[in-house]
Design goal:
13 helices, about 290 residues, 5-stranded parallel beta sheet, about 10% strand, globular, Rossmann fold
């Protein structure tokens, strides 16, 4: 049986695609099933996490694998193919900044996942995004899940020179050497959504449901971040964290400039680094490149 695994890199419209593919799976019927994200996160994604001996005991990893295998078997009985997607399979956006690198723990997470998916015909799908916009957007996402930190404090010493998208793709290939890896640029999603969806669910463009143009949550406004930075400096991280949601709601809207931390020089550096990574990605053997 074939499994299509979407490694939803954060801030590449993964949630948007998940919503859309839910509708597409209803059109596909028994040809391709798409388990709900809540189930994937409860049954499969925990396999990627390293077992915590302190809190769960040494047998927790095995129990997670057995639970995930049983869950997969149940879904495999419902359809001819399975499409799985979760942006947390690779890790969390918070860990990006904690480790100062792009998914530095991906190798171990993917190896643990591969143990569960062994024996299936696998195609793996992954999107990449221009570094500057990705990091800006990922930072805003981390603020919704953890304590407030000013951007420069969070980003300082982030290592893109020795770990870019091509290194993440290499981790994927090492964990799944027999799988086909398909990559595309987030910036090309609008033109690639239909062919990707057709390949996943086996439905023609004319049969696809209408597209919801709403994407993942937008970045904070520049004014909101400036206010939160000021609160952080004046009264500390706890207070900035406590009021973050209220500030975001009040200081938001289409008329406000989005958060933009980069200088023009940095924009050019990120653009050059992205082009280098795209070239390196396309040169990797065994990768199918879209767009």
């Amino acid at each position: 049986m074939r499994i299509d695994l979407h490694l939803g890199v954060h801030r590449t419209a993964a949630i948007h695609l998940q919503h859309y593919w839910t509708s597409c799976s209803q059109v596909a019927g028994a040809a391709a099933a798409f388990p709900p994200l809540t189930e994937v996160r409860a049954q499969l994604t925990p396999v990627c996490n390293p077992p915590s001996v302190k809190s769960a005991g040494p047998g927790e990893g095995q129990r997670r694998r057995e639970k995930a295998v049983a869950w997969l078997n149940g879904w495999c009985q419902r359809a001819q193919a399975l499409v799985l997607s979760d942006e947390n399979l690779l890790g969390s956006p918070e860990r990006l900044f904690a480790q100062r690198a792009l998914y530095a723990s991906a190798s171990g997470r993917l190896e643990r996942l591969a143990a569960v998916l062994k024996g299936y015909e696998l195609r793996i799908w992954m999107s990449v995004r221009e570094y500057g916009s990705f990091l800006r957007s990922a930072y805003c996402e981390t603020l919704r899940h953890g304590p407030y930190r000013p951007f420069r404090e969070a980003y300082d010493h982030f290592d893109l020179a020795s770990r870019g998208w091509e290194h993440l793709a290499h981790d994927v290939q090492q964990a799944f050497p027999a799988a086909k890896l398909v990559c595309w640029r987030y910036e090309s999603l609008d033109e690639l959504r239909a062919p990707i969806t057709s390949a996943l669910f086996g439905i023609r463009r004319a049969a696809m449901p209408p597209i919801d143009d709403q994407r993942d949550r937008q970045s904070l406004s520049n004014l909101a971040v400036e206010l939160l930075d000021d609160i952080y400096r004046r009264v500390g991280a706890d207070e900035a964290t406590r009021v973050r949601q209220s500030v975001e709601r009040v200081i938001s809207g289409d008329g406000l400039a989005p958060f933009e931390p980069w200088s023009e020089v940095e924009h050019q550096q990120f653009k050059a680094a992205y082009e280098q990574s795209l070239t390196a990605l396309q040169a990797l053997p065994g990768i199918s490149w879209l767009g």
